[in-house]
Amino acid sequence: MKSGSLVAALAACFFAPVLARGADLTPPKAGKVAIFPLRDIKPGMQGTAWTVFQGTQPEPIPIEIIGVWKKANGPNDVILAKMGGKAKETNVAGGMSGSPVYIDGKLVGAVAQRISVFSPDSICGITPIESMLEVEDFDASRPRQPVGGAKVAEMPRDLLQRLVAAGVSEASLPRDTPLLEPIATPLMFTGFSADALHTFAPLFEQMGITAVQSGGGGAATLEWKPAKGWQNSLNPGDSVAGVLISGDLSATGTGTVTYNDGKRVLAFGHSFMNLGPVDMPMAKSEIVMTLASSYQPNKLPNTTDVVGALHQDRFSGIMGELGAEAPMVPVHLKVRSLDERENVVKQKDFHFQVFVNQRYTPTLMMATLASTIQQINEYADEITYRMSGDVDVAGGGTLNVSTILAASDAPAPPAVLLANWWGDKFNRLFANPVSMPKLTKVDCSIDLLPDRRVAAIDSAWTPSSDVEAGSEIPVKVFLQPYRGERIERSVTVKIPAGLAKGEHRILFSDADTLNRLQSVATANSRFMDLPETVSLLNQERSNNRIYVSLVENRATYFTDDKTLPSLPGSLVNLLEADHAASKSLTGTPETAEEQLSVPFDEMVSGSYSLHINVK
Prior knowledge:
Layout: H1 2-20, E1 46-51, E2 59-73, E3 76-83, H2 86-90, E4 99-103, E5 106-114, E6 123-128, H3 129-133, H4 159-167, E7 181-182, E8 187-190, H5 194-206, E9 211-213, E10 239-247, E11 250-260, E12 264-267, E13 276-291, E14 298-314, E15 317-322, E16 328-338, E17 344-355, H6 361-374, E18 384-393, E19 397-406, H7 414-430, E20 439-449, E21 454-461, E22 466-467, E23 472-481, E24 487-494, E25 502-509, H8 511-521, H9 530-538, E26 545-552, E27 556-559, E28 562-565, H10 569-578, E29 586-588, E30 591-599, E31 603-605, E32 607-614
Parallel strand pairs: 8-9, 16-20, 21-31, 22-32
Antiparallel strand pairs: 1-2, 1-4, 2-3, 3-6, 4-5, 5-6, 5-7, 8-11, 10-11, 10-13, 10-17, 11-12, 12-15, 13-14, 14-15, 16-17, 18-19, 18-20, 21-23, 23-24, 25-26, 25-32, 26-30, 27-28, 27-29
């Protein structure tokens, strides 16, 4: 017994200086704190870092200063230090970004970088608190609304290709060079299918995100409004999360709080997604465990209550405001599987909210849609998707969405193609140069039909190609479905009374053919406002119909969301002369005037021209 007590006493004496020298082992609290200047840092100094290894309570980590590495982080100096205690076992783990470091009770900075995941010494880089405090100075720099008519600088056409080529060049720095790099802040995707994340991972990587499938997204009811008790949240050393998606699906990035003055919070010690000014929900987080690894150590978090909003995402850290609210887009997706008679076999409803950002919102909308489709047991390759719904845009009206999509020879599966179609709608809304869209509600249904419903336009026939202006002629249209007998439909086409004599054609086409004519012609209309953008999107045809159009050899002009068919040359000259420089007036050499459309329960593709002669 005496020998055991003696060993314990000796151990306590040996380790006490490491833990206590220059350190206060009381967990730090919000409020003003003294700063330890970078100029006073010396090798061998002892300090303490605080971070959460499990649960919500931060624990002390002994820190020994190695020295200051000049300009190791761009133009900024980095403090190199060796971590002890539990961090020596786990290594410098993902999620430790922002862990505050103190010497003699004064704040030095945030654990933010590491040199090598294979190092046995748990070497970290500390971002000086002076650099992080600069982030607060940017709080007034909110994004301004673009001014209509402003000039847009164009990137040289081959510059993007050259930049991409340079990024994958063999001459790039070797990946195993032991340079200082920010501690990874992987974005944890919860409730997503592995297939969806695998599909969109390259796109996320291009945007600077490492997408990780995980648990821990928080409760399905996670809201973006601050919860009660937010005033006492996020003390230094606590875990903090930025929320991109919340609800039945979630996406969050977790780090550690460095500084809290009672209202504003600094964290990470490096950028999150390098967005600059941002409005993103900021939440508390609890740690299930910290995975020790010599290759990829990581905290495994559960995101809990939203307590404020992130306002800045800068090079040396992120800054959030407690009690602030960041808007999100409420989304409801209803996924139903139907049998051959279109009876509902199964239905799943997904409710979630999406972070508002012109670069990220469209991508997140794509990934969530693909994932919801792939997580129903009736999902299969030979299947048809029928989608319909509404996107409510404040001050811009309602965007009505409707499409049908089935398997084809395309290299991507139909679910991904549907997600791409869906994301394009949001891309065009958020690319609006006049004002940032505010989406108040997204409500859509996706029906899964148990077979491949596609039909290609094959041919058309009329008893006589010689017709008279003002008459009506009977026409038969033939379609070839996938593995089925040819479909025949009869329609009556009215020949306009004023149609000029001579050769003309009746065009039987799918939606893409007519949409393409308008989208190409309006591609240069860079200054459409939100109502015009919504109007133009609503004019797009649905791909479960055949469109019957009379084509004349007269130009159609497009300006913003307006279609001006068969304009005489004198009027075109007048419009071009009077048109504002910020607007575009473009056209196609022919006018395809839609006469009627024929609905189908298949995805219609292709086109066919029936030539007629007006006597």
